[in-house]
Amino acid sequence: DQQVKQNSPSLSVQEGRISILNCDYTNSMFDYFLWYKKYPAEGPTFLISISSIKDKNEDGRFTVFLNKSAKHLSLHIVPSQPGDSAVYFCAANSDTGRRALTFGSGTRLQVQP
Amino acid sequence: GAVVSQHPSWVICKSGTSVKIECRSLDFQATTMFWYRQFPKQSLMLMATSNEGSKATYEQGVEKDKFLINHASLTLSTLTVTSAHPEDSSFYICSARDREKLFFGSGTQLSVL
């Protein structure tokens, strides 16, 4: 049972435009959500997170939106840059971060120059 | 940000040999570390939770006798793949928690011939 789902395996966007990566979850106990960026043969790099008490968190070009009623979150990257091309993983956990993360399957973002 | 160091970054070994992977938190103490495995084009799957000074907690389907975890200090956890076989070839990633965020090592690509 996949508790965190990223239904789009890939996304292609033009440089300068907005990239929107989506993530859905099924476990209502999740209360903390994170986005990681990963290059091939490297470990994931933390990007941005959001607690379930918020519906938006912004950090520079990255904004994460959380819709608890829909059990949906999204990552917006504006403006997109070629260096943003990577695989993005959505992750979630419960118990205020004391547990391990549950990851989605990832979305490969390609930003075209 | 917090730094997690993982070594080696890649290893090739013969079937039947054992391989040890080290994970160190460099600027913080981690009572809990997590070991993940990622097969090509798949998500990161949690293998086990490593607890300092006590036995590791393994996820369902992960053989504890095959994947030995030792967490002898607050900054070091090791994963030993015993009697490795070609099906154990994968990308192994450790992570450690600093407050509510998880930081990841750079990963170890294991290839078993």
Structure notes:
Chain A has 113 residues and is mostly beta strands. Chain A is built from no helices and eleven strands. Chain B is globular. The mean pLDDT of chain B is 90. By secondary structure, chain B is an all-beta fold. Chain A binds chain B through residues 32, 34, 36, 41-46, 49, 89, 91, 96-97, 100-106, and chain B through 1, 4, 6, 9-10, 34, 36, 42-46, 49, 91, 93, 95, 97, 99-107, 109.
Protein traits:
heterodimer; A: mainly beta; five-stranded antiparallel sheet; 11 strands; globular; B: 113 residues; mainly beta; four-stranded antiparallel sheet
Please give the structural blueprint.
The complex is a heterodimer of chains A (113) and B (113).
Chain A: E1 4-5, E2 10-14, E3 19-25, E4 32-38, E5 45-51, E6 56-59, E7 62-67, E8 72-77, E9 86-93, E10 102-103, E11 107-112
Parallel strand pairs in A: 2-11
Antiparallel strand pairs in A: 1-3, 3-8, 4-5, 4-9, 6-7, 7-8, 9-10, 9-11
Chain B: E1 4-7, E2 10-13, E3 19-25, E4 32-38, E5 44-51, E6 57-58, E7 67-73, E8 76-81, E9 90-98, E10 101-104, E11 108-112
Parallel strand pairs in B: 2-11
Antiparallel strand pairs in B: 1-3, 3-8, 4-5, 4-9, 5-6, 7-8, 9-10, 9-11
